[in-house]
Amino acid sequence: MFISPQFVSDNLPVQLVLPDLNQAKALFAIIANHRDDLKPWMAWVTTVKSIEDEEAFLLNSQQQMYKQKLFLLTICVEGSPAGVITLYDLDFPNHHGKVSYWLSPQYQGHGIASRCLERVLAYAFNQLHLHKLQVWADAFNYKAQHVAQRMGFEHEATMKEELFFNDRYHDMEVFCYVNLAQNV
């Protein structure tokens, strides 16, 4: 079981918590209020049109966690949901996966995403025994790329026209972190 003690980032109390349907209203409010900020980088933003859509996402995430397909945590700042960080595409036989994150624009620039990523990396390597994690970020999402680089991820590849959303193709930058301390 993942347990994240509260930590402080730039004087803001932060905690990573397991997803709960009670978080849907707050997460949906962030998405609805910051849709224009999130939409350029995340294809899923246009599909979340109601609290019920967010509830369905959280329920599906819980089910996928039970099946060990992904590991999702809600980022809570000052006691309220402010974003999400997710381990996904988990490939346990080959010891790798991907990590993604999004955070309400009002909390960006405080080191929160980096500190959350640091904790999820520790969990992925020490508890799940993964060897390699990737972050895929839109080629123009410099904030997400900067978080990955700050945490020691190295640029691995550019995937040209990898995703199609918002009526255009998006290049994706792939960043990789290999746990060199782990011997299999």
UniProtKB/TrEMBL annotation:
<dbReference type="InterPro" id="IPR016181">
    <property type="entry name" value="Acyl_CoA_acyltransferase"/>
</dbReference>
<feature type="domain" description="N-acetyltransferase">
    <location>
        <begin position="16"/>
        <end position="177"/>
    </location>
</feature>
<keyword id="KW-0808">Transferase</keyword>
<dbReference type="InterPro" id="IPR000182">
    <property type="entry name" value="GNAT_dom"/>
</dbReference>
<dbReference type="GO" id="GO:0008999">
    <property type="term" value="F:protein-N-terminal-alanine acetyltransferase activity"/>
</dbReference>
<protein>
    <submittedName>
        <fullName>Acetyltransferase</fullName>
    </submittedName>
</protein>
<dbReference type="GO" id="GO:1990189">
    <property type="term" value="F:protein N-terminal-serine acetyltransferase activity"/>
</dbReference>
<dbReference type="GO" id="GO:0005737">
    <property type="term" value="C:cytoplasm"/>
</dbReference>
<dbReference type="InterPro" id="IPR051908">
    <property type="entry name" value="Ribosomal_N-acetyltransferase"/>
</dbReference>
<dbReference type="Pfam" id="PF13302">
    <property type="entry name" value="Acetyltransf_3"/>
</dbReference>
